[in-house]
Amino acid sequence: MSQTETTATPVHVESESHLDELVAENDVVLVDFYADWCGPCKMLEPTLEEIAEETDAVVAKVDIEELQEFAQAQGVRSVPTLKFFAHGEEAKTVVGVQDKADLVDAIEQLA
User: Fold this and answer.
1) What CATH number is associated with residue 89?
2) pLDDT 10s digits, 29-39
3) CB–CB of 28/64 below 8 Å?
4) How many structural domains is the chain composed of?
5) Per the residue annotation, which of 41, 62, 67, 110 is the catalytic one?
6) Do the beta carbons of residue 33 and residue 84 sit within 8 Å?
7) Where along the sequence does the record put site: Deprotonates C-terminal active site Cys (predicted)?
8) Residue 75 lies in domain
9) Cβ distance 49 to 10 under 8 Å?
10) Which among 101, 95, 73 has a CA at the least distance from the CA of 16?
11) The pTM is what?
């Protein structure tokens, strides 16, 4: 996957090691822990797609149904949970639907 692909559209995370690679290879990664049955997650989807397209951050999507143990290990108790990673380290966590401007601000502060 080329750098332009990873940043232009959200990336579906296949495994914990896949997310580790994304975090290691990119300066800022916004991880969306979501579920298909989650209404607020669906509301947040277009915002995350725009952020993936408009910023240098990689938007990674983790399906909590598919990766239950990983989501639990990450402390995800409700969805959507958004985690920001900057330069390989977890930097910030927010829960619930967020305003696009707030998410972009957080990304810019971490970059």
Assistant:
1) 3.40.30.10
2) 999 999 999 99
3) no
4) 1
5) 41
6) no
7) 32
8) 3-110
9) yes
10) 73
11) 0.93
